[in-house]
Specification:
By secondary structure, this protein is of the alpha+beta class. Among the domains are: 114 residues, Uridine Diphospho-n-acetylenolpyruvylglucosamine Reductase, domain 3 (2-Layer Sandwich); 163 residues, FAD-linked oxidase, cap domain/gating helix (Vanillyl-alcohol Oxidase, Chain A, domain 3, 3-Layer(aba) Sandwich). Helices cover 31% and strands 22% of the residues. The protein has 18 helices and 18 strands. The strands form 3 sheets. It has an 8-stranded antiparallel β-sheet with strand order 14-11-13-12-16-17-15-18, with helices on both faces. A hairpin with an 8-residue loop joins strand 8 and strand 9. Helix 1 packs antiparallel against helix 4. It is globular. The structure holds flavin-adenine dinucleotide. Flavin-adenine dinucleotide binds next to strand 3, helix 6, strand 10 and helix 14. InterPro entries: FAD-bd_PCMH, FAD-bd_PCMH-like_sf, FAD-bd_PCMH_sub2, Oxid_FAD_bind_N. This is FAD-binding oxidoreductase. Pfam families: FAD_binding_4.
Length: 450
C-alpha cells in the first residue's frame, strides 16, 4: 500500500459487520470475495500519472450493494455501530482516487439502488445509483430534460453530485456548485449515526453535501430539476487550422437558444477519438450539441471561419455520443493512443483562446482540449507529455503569468470549500468514518496536503 494509506480495520469487526449486513439486507447484498473487493477499490485515477505512482491507496474489506435509498441508510447504521469506515461508491469513474477506500472497511456500492422514484413537472427523484443517462431518458419520456449531466453518462447521480462538477448543459446552467438549489432541488442524506436514517434536505442545506465525496453524509436519494425538452442535434465541423476552431468556441456558445455543449480539439487529439467519418484525419475538430433552430446560424459561423460542416445528426443517441467525447474523454483517448505519455491539468479563462500560443508553451508538447463552460467562458484540459510532478507544478506559475485559471486534479482531497465540510462533519460524522483520508486542508496552489 502507498504511504498515504490509513490502517485497515481489524478482521473481527469486519466479520461481525458482514454477518449483520447479511441479516439485514440478505446474503446476495454483501461480498468479501477478492474480485469484488478489488473492483470497488479503484476508480478513474489511472488518468493521473501522479496518482498512478501512489497506487494502491487502499483496499475494501467488505462491500455491500443496497438496492434502494433505505438500504443505503441500513448499511451506514450497521457500519457505524461496528465502528467501520465507509466509502460510498457510484460507478467509480471519478477522478482521482476520491472513491478509493483509503482506510479499508466497507464500500457501499450504490449502483444497484437505481430506481427512478418519481418524475413530475420540473423535477425528477431518483435513488443515488441511478445512471445519468437513465435519468435523462426518463425525463425525455415526459417531454423534459435534465439541466446538466457529465460526459461519463453511465455514472450515477449520487456520484455526480458528490464528485462531479459540470458537463453537457453547463454553458447555460453553470457548474454543479455554482447553482445553489437550481440543479439539486433536494437530497435525502444519511449521517454516520448508529440509528442512521434518511434525512430530507432542501436546496441551500443540500448544497453542503455537494462535491465533497460523501464526507458530510452519504447521499441516498436525489431530486434534480428538469426543464422542457429541446430538439438537440450533434453538429460536427472540421478546420485546417485549430486556431479557427478555437476562435469559434465563444460565438458558438452565444447562439440562442444556448447550445448544450461546445468542444474543440487539435488534430492530434481529434485523431485519437473513436473513428468517425465526421472526424476527418489530420483536421481540428469542433463539436456542438445545438438546438435544431440554430443549425443554419452555426453553419454560417463555420463557413465564415473557413471550416467544413462534416455532419449534423439529430436525437438523443447521437448527442450522447458527442457528450461522451467531451470534457476529460479526449485526454483518456489520447492516453489510449499514446500509453504512459500524457498528463493533464484543468484550465479555464479567455486566455485559452486569446493567448493560445502562449498557453501551448506552458509545457513542452502541450495541447489544449477546449470546452465552452458557464456562459461560454473557455475552459478545458491542457495535456502534455509527463516529465514528473515537479515540472507539472512548475507550470502553474506560467499559467498565473498569462491569466490562465487552473485546478490541479492530481489529488483526492475535498477542495471545494473544505472548511464548510470540516465544520459540518463534526456533527454529521463525529467519529470520522465517512470516506476517511479525503477531508484534509489542501494547499490551493499545489493541491497537496498541508
Ligand atoms: C474520462 C472521464 C471523463 C469525465 N468527465 C466528467 C464530466 O464531464 N463532468 C464531471 O463533472 N465529471 C467528469 N468525470 C468525473 C466523473 O466521471 C463524474 O464526476 C461522475 O459523475 C462520477 O460519478 P460516479 O458514479 O462514477 O461516482 P464515483 O466515482 O463512484 O464517486 C465519486 C465521488 O463521490 C463519492 N460518492 C459516490 N456516491 C456517493 C453517494 N451516494 N453519496 C456520497 N458520496 C458518494 C465517492 O466516494 C467519490 O468520492 C470524468 C471522469 C473521467 C474518467
Amino acid at each position: 500500500m502507498g504511504t498515504d494509506t490509513l490502517p485497515a480495520v481489524d478482521l473481527d469487526r469486519i466479520t461481525a459487520l458482514a454477518a449483520e449486513l447479511r441479516e439485514l439486507l440478505g446474503e446476495a447484498a454483501v461480498s468479501d470475495e477478492d474480485a469484488a473487493l478489488e473492483r470497488v477499490s479503484v476508480d478513474g485515477s489511472t488518468l493521473s500519472p501522479v496518482i498512478m505512482q501512489k497506487l494502491p491507496l487502499g483496499r475494501a474489506q467488505l462491500v455491500v450493494y443496497p438496492t434502494d435509498a433505505e438500504g443505503i441508510a441500513v448499511a451506514v447504521g450497521a457500519a457505524v455501530r461496528h465502528g467501520v469506515p465507509i466509502t460510498p461508491r457510484g460507478k467509480g469513474t471519478g477522478n482521482y482516487g476520491q472513491a478509493i477506500p483509503m482506510a479499508g472497511g466497507l464500500v457501499i456500492d450504490t449502483s444497484k439502488a437505481r430506481s427512478i422514484v418519481e418524475v413530475g413537472d420540473g423535477y425528477l427523484i431518483a435513488d443515488a445509483g441511478a445512471p445519468m443517462i437513465q435519468i435523462e431518458q426518463a425525463a425525455n419520456r415526459t417531454g423534459q430534460q435534465v439541466l446538466m449531466f457529465p460526459s461519463t453518462v453511465q455514472s450515477t447521480v449520487g456520484g455526480f453530485v458528490s464528485g462531479g462538477s459540470g458537463g453537457t448543459g453547463s454553458i447555460k446552467h453553470g457548474m454543479l456548485t455554482s447553482i445553489v438549489g437550481g440543479y439539486v432541488r433536494s437530497l435525502d442524506v444519511v449521517h454516520a449515526e448508529p440509528d442512521a436514517r434518511l434525512i430530507h434536505l432542501e436546496a441551500e442545506q443540500a448544497h453542503n453535501y455537494l462535491h465533497n465525496y460523501g464526507v458530510t453524509g452519504i447521499i441516498a436519494r436525489v431530486e434534480v430539476a428538469l426543464e422542457p425538452q429541446q430538439p438537440w442535434s450533434a453538429f460536427y465541423a472540421s478546420f485546417d487550422d485549430f486556431h479557427d476552431a478555437f476562435e469559434l468556441i465563444r460565438p458558438m456558445a452565444a447562439l440562442e437558444p444556448t447550445p448544450r455543449l461546445v468542444s474543440a480539439d487539435l488534430p492530434t487529439l481529434a485523431d485519437a477519438l473513436p473513428n468517425d467519418e465526421a472526424l476527418p484525419a489530420g483536421k481540428a475538430s469542433l463539436r456542438v450539441i445545438l438546438d435544431e433552430s440554430t443549425i443554419e446560424a452555426a453553419t454560417r459561423l463555420v463557413e465564415q471561419a473557413g471550416g467544413t460542416v462534416e455532419a449534423v445528426r439529430p436525437g438523443l443517441q447521437n448527442t450522447m455520443k458527442l457528450s461522451m467525447v467531451s470534457y476529460n474523454h479526449p485526454i483518456e483517448w489520447l492516453q489510449k493512443a499514446y500509453p504512459g505519455v500524457y498528463f493533464h491539468v484543468e484550465v479555464g479563462g479567455d486566455a485559452l483562446v486569446d493567448r493560445i500560443d502562449e498557453v501551448h508553451e506552458i509545457y513542452p508538447g502541450a495541447m489544449l482540449h477546449l470546452e465552452a463552460m458557464a456562459q461560454g467562458t473557455p475552459g478545458g484540459m491542457l495535456a502534455a507529455p509527463y516529465t514528473g510532478e515537479a515540472d507539472l507544478l512548475a507550470g502553474f506559475d506560467r499559467m498565473r503569468a498569462i491569466d490562465v485559471g487552473f485546478h490541479n486534479p492530481h489529488q483526492w482531497f475535498v477542495d471545494y470549500e473544505p472548511e464548510r465540510s470540516v465544520e459540518l462533519a463534526k456533527s454529521t460524522d463525529p467519529q470520522g468514518l465517512l470516506n476517511p483520508g479525503k477531508l484534509v486542508e489542501p494547499d490551493v496552489d499545489t493541491g497537496r496536503k498541508r
